[in-house]
Amino acid sequence: MRGMSMPPEGAQGQLSLKTLKSLWPYLMEYRSRIALAMLCLVGAKIATVGVPFILKYIVDGLDTKTAQDMTLALPLGLLLAYGAARLATTLFGELRDTVFGRVTERAMRRIGLQVFQHLHALELDFHLNRRTGGLSRDIERGVTGVGFLLRIMVFNIVPTLVELAMVTGILLFNYTIGFVFITLGAVASYILFSVLVTNWRLAFVREANLADSTSNTRAVDSLLNYETVKYFGNESFEANRYDEDLARWEQARRKNRLSLFMLNAGQALIIAVAVTAMMVLAADQVIKDKITIGDFVLINAFTMQLFIPLGFLGFVYRELKSATANIERMFELLDQAPGVTDSPGAPDLMISDGAIEFEQVRFGYSERRPILQDVSFRVLPRQKVAIVGSSGAGKSTVVKLLFRFYDVTGGAIRIDGQDIRNVSQASLRRAIGIVPQDTVLFNSTLYENVRYGRIDASREEVMEAIRMAHLDEFITDLPDGVETLVGERGLKLSGGEKQRVAIARTILKRPPILVFDEATSSLDSESEQGILQAIREVSRGQTSLVIAHRLSTVVDADVILVMSHGRIVEKGSHEELLARNGTYANLWQIQQREEGPSENG
Q1: Is 425 in the same domain as 489?
Q2: What is the pTM assigned to this prediction?
């Protein structure tokens, strides 16, 4: 996919810093919640560190008193304090997560929305080259990775390091320096081993993600083309291709799993050796009467308390690197600048008459592929102008440029004298209604698909648009009426029915300029006549630009422009062009022979 290649390995640290910097504004939106969560965090850490000390005094108290002279007040009070400290550790931790959960969820929502809006801001060329299945999976993993970063990195990594420092300081202050050497040696070995092995594993994580995206893309693409698969009986072919992608995913996941086993086993070995060394040293100190049994229990508790978060820190680092690999593609997508943008402070398009002017327009999708060459024409207010020509002449490109899906490479396009590059894209597209060649509908009801033309329209306005598009008779025959689901991309409707929905949308939008892009090219003659009648009613008294392949559909146009190889080669009314006996007349004769006699001939 264009612009979505993996970044180089060396860019990962920079990407992580960039990610954190990008997340900072979302954190600052909830300063009070973050402050409360930090207080809960501090309370949880104090309670956590206090538990081993309480346990020490309980053991020493029980060890030094006999059953006859033991007073239950002190041990019972310490036992109650021990339970309270344990409860406080859990409650403060849960409260912290609950308070900060709102911050995390809002950030995930905001970033997900930002990606969604950015995708809609990217130019048409990006969407023509995208792979929808893989792209959606990349975004899903990226947003999830962002949530992980916020939850874990901000409130787990730093507190864990603080806890390690506190435990190490307590051991150094109260006991022999040997405990500190063992602790620091274990921590350094654990972190170094985790970093080296996790960096080695990252290639397998990426390979698994790529295989996952590829297989998902293949599945979505095949299901979207379900009818084509059935037409050609290629179910086995599609299944085999999907299985090949799944086999690559399975192999990548196997490598990932085996490397994870090596990482976990190495980390467990380091922790086991360190715990054993700590206990041997502590037992030796007890035998020599340098520390008490309570101190032995305290050191054991601190050791467990030390290595549990350390083990969690190893998990966090692994998942952090995985999350980084997941969000790389999403942030690279966010960095991709739209090819068509509004100039700063661009005003809205002001429509007075709805006149359109193309002045020496040149355009090509690349320097090696020119499409339009010095195209000039005018559409006067309330005039109907048709553009005809053979396939590949550049007719539909004119529509894309008028909607500013691309910017011209030369010349200018003006509406009522305003260069469309100098006005906002939103106002430009509000002023133009289109009935496209291929009407794609949302997987919703007929009513919602029509209302999409103007989402704030009342039900009465929607039903009136349906009536004017001659959809009402068709809807009356449906059991669910306007609440009928049209299926994905409108597959439950015929071509003519989808075109009527498109016309109804345009009627509801009520734009001053109408564009019909080969709106009847895929219809049979009966459906075509019905659609043409609806188009004539909609476009009466409005500025209209009609792109047509069938010449019989535009004989009533005020002006017909004939395009060939990206240029306008003829211009005039139907009768004038026939009398000229040129390109248009030749096309007319060919189509008449193919379609049979026409009453317009």
Answers
A1: no
A2: 0.64
